[in-house]
Amino acid sequence: MNTGKITLDTLHPSWLPQQPEAAMLRLDKLDAEISGNKWFKLKYNLEAARSEGKTHILTFGGAYSNHIAATAAACRQAGLPCTGIIRGEAPQVLSHTLETALAQGMQLEFVSREAYKNNCATFEERPDTYVIPEGGHNAAGARGCEEILSLFPTGHFTHILCAVGTGTTLAGLINSATPDQTVIGIPVLKGAGYLEAEVKALLYSGKTRHWQLLHDFHGGGYAKVKPALIDFINTFFAETGIPTDIIYTGKLVYAFHELIRQRYFTDNNKVLLIHTGGLQGNLSLPPGVLSL
Ligand SMILES: *Cc1c(COP(=O)(O)O)cnc(C)c1O
């Protein structure tokens, strides 16, 4: 994968004063299908599968999962057959995400929400199969995300902001940040208090670091999209030319906007926002809602 397409863009939307300085690391430019952070999370998982001689990838997700879309595309590129265990009964009409995964050659198996919750472990038993947990949430996933901050010189940023689902990407960022930097995660799920422990489980011990999760910016919960968010995403695109998605990165920038309004940062802060991609998720909206 050519990480040379990734850029570091200075941000000047109308609501951002001269200070603090802000920039966005555009992981969304990496690839349309293996989007943003998902490629970093898959990198060492696929490498491990190969070195362990596994011939099949198995992973898990919901009908709109960026992780399912990315795994399907990455396995196709790697020439590895893969199966996606999809939460919920098979729908009459497949989501755009699942259609694309299927077209990439991923086998889809639908399981009831109950069975999905209880039985994920039972899928791990075939010896030829390498299992990637839901959302790529494991140490190999976090390790790939350690490479994100070295794509560009980023040591001068005082704060790093990232949207959070499972916290894998955030853990990689925290593990690779300098001791002077503060890493801030914006969970997009409501009531995600369990995340602190999940992130901590992926951190290397014995290093001082500053990080926190700000739980007030989920905007109603996972995949809940209020009209104000749509307006915000459209305006941000009109002002900066940067497309964001309704599930993760739109909420990240919206949170940043709120933090600016609350004067959370001081004038000499330098803020780096990580654009984790996920734009394929916007395709599940009716056409014309977003003007990106
Ligand atoms: C999956 C995803 C995330 C969440 O990443 P985690 O490592 O699970 O926290 C953030 N942004 C986008 C665009 C994603 O697709």
Automatic annotation (TrEMBL):
<dbReference type="Pfam" id="PF00291">
    <property type="entry name" value="PALP"/>
</dbReference>
<dbReference type="InterPro" id="IPR027278">
    <property type="entry name" value="ACCD_DCysDesulf"/>
</dbReference>
<keyword id="KW-0663">Pyridoxal phosphate</keyword>
<protein>
    <submittedName>
        <fullName>Pyridoxal-phosphate dependent enzyme</fullName>
    </submittedName>
</protein>
<feature type="domain" description="Tryptophan synthase beta chain-like PALP">
    <location>
        <begin position="34"/>
        <end position="277"/>
    </location>
</feature>
<comment type="similarity">
    <text>Belongs to the ACC deaminase/D-cysteine desulfhydrase family.</text>
</comment>
<dbReference type="InterPro" id="IPR036052">
    <property type="entry name" value="TrpB-like_PALP_sf"/>
</dbReference>
<dbReference type="InterPro" id="IPR001926">
    <property type="entry name" value="TrpB-like_PALP"/>
</dbReference>
